[in-house]
Amino acid sequence: MQISGVEPEYVTVIMVLAACSNLGALGKGIWVYRYVLQKGLNKEIRVSNFLINMYSRCGCIEFAHQEFSSMQKRSLVLWNLIIVGFAINGHEEEALEHFSAMQKEGFNPNGVSFTGALTACSHAGLVEKGRLEDAFRVIRSIPMMPNEVILGSLLVACKTYGNLSLAKKLMGYIVEIDPNCDSNYVLLSNMYAADE
């Protein structure tokens, strides 16, 4: 594209950053970031979103946090990206701190926010912060139907902490969303077997 003299716009840049994320190609992603700075595309919030996602998925959470910190105007998407980024990179406390900070800034968590926070809690074994019944109450209170990722994460936590009664309730929701997901049935079956 560049060789043919066509100037890439921000949409092209975010697609290339998405490809770098999927491939784990941090070096190429950094090259794209230099291009972004050179062309002044760093003011476009969607470019920043994709940069944070790329850095997080490539295991470079420090760069993701630098980009997040440099943003003057933050959206719910931006908060979710940094929360999930910290959680998947093993920085559970930072994920939970940002989850709290997001709410203090007036943003209401959505399904992605809760998935990030629950992931952080389950990775760190923070039972007090990620109490299962409280998490289930929160999931039921959000206006949209929770997705299979959120419910699946909570189901795994139920297995970890031996909460069979909550696992049964969760399966009611999971069956509505994805009745053909065999792994959830196997997980619940193993919980029944362990409970005998």
From TrEMBL:
The chain crosses the membrane at residues 12-33. PPR repeats lie at residues 75-109. This is Pentatricopeptide repeat-containing protein. The keyword Membrane applies. Keywords: Membrane, Repeat, Transmembrane, Transmembrane helix. It comes from the Eukaryota. PANTHER family: PENTATRICOPEPTIDE REPEAT-CONTAINING PROTEIN. The lineage of its organism: Eukaryota, Viridiplantae, Streptophyta, Embryophyta, Tracheophyta. Coiled coil: none annotated.
